[in-house]
Amino acid sequence: MLWSGISQSLGGSVSADPEWRRRDKYFERRVAELHAQGWSDRDIAKQMRCSATRARERRLKLGLPSNGHNERHTQKVWARRQKTLKKDGVETLGELVSLSRRLRAAASGWPAETGKREVEILNLLDRVGPKSKNEITNLLGLKHLRSGGSEKRRSYLRTLVRAGLVEVRKEMSSYGPVRRLYAISKDARKSRERRLRIETLENAEAI
Q1: Is it the case that residue 117 has pLDDT exceeding 60?
Q2: Are 198 and 190 in contact (CB under 8 A)?
Q3: Domain architecture of the chain: domains with CATH
Q4: What's the first-to-final CA gap in the chain, in angstroms?
Q5: HEC profile of 85-152
Q6: Structure confidence by residue, pLDDT tens digits, 39-79
Q7: pTM value?
Q8: Please, what is the average pLDDT of the chain?
Q9: Are 176 and 153 in contact (CB under 8 A)?
Q10: Which residues on neighbouring strands pair with residue 81, listed in sequence order?
């Protein structure tokens, strides 16, 4: 059926060419063989020097399922991840996450152990000044200021206050109740300015 359609569209020249037909049969056989070994459409395409679309169409014609998320694919993803970790000088994904967090905090001038969300809060307070808990939550687009996972009861603001990075100020509002405002502490601001100044000097020396 397939050959008759191709033959008719090309004036019968394709079906009459045994060499072309032999190559097509070889291609189909290799697709089936590589698929049986767990190769994905993209890998098969690279091996056979054709487009991924052609490899996929032939696989579907053979009635074979996708190998996009099998064990071989998982091993390749893990190998690429390990290569990236080695390039960054770490051994595990957890170490990479920790390194990324430390670099993010250091780039903003905060202590390296400061968490991602805490850094966002500090940067916000540095930019807009003292704010209430609700104002901070809304400005960051969050539902609450508590961490998830295994530390559901940990408050970001409480952590920052205990670390001496944020201080609590009380302000009388026009409505009567006292407002609790959170602001960067003087010591934290001085330490941050010193870190940024040192980093600027180090970058200048590197240049």
Answers
A1: yes
A2: no
A3: 2-67 (no CATH), 97-206 (1.10.10.10)
A4: 69
A5: HHHCCCCCHHHHHHHHHHHHHHHCCCCCCCCHHHHHHHHHHHHHCCEEHHHHHHHCCCCCCECCCCCC
A6: 888 889 999 999 989 999 999 999 988 887 666 766 776 67
A7: 0.52
A8: 79
A9: no
A10: none
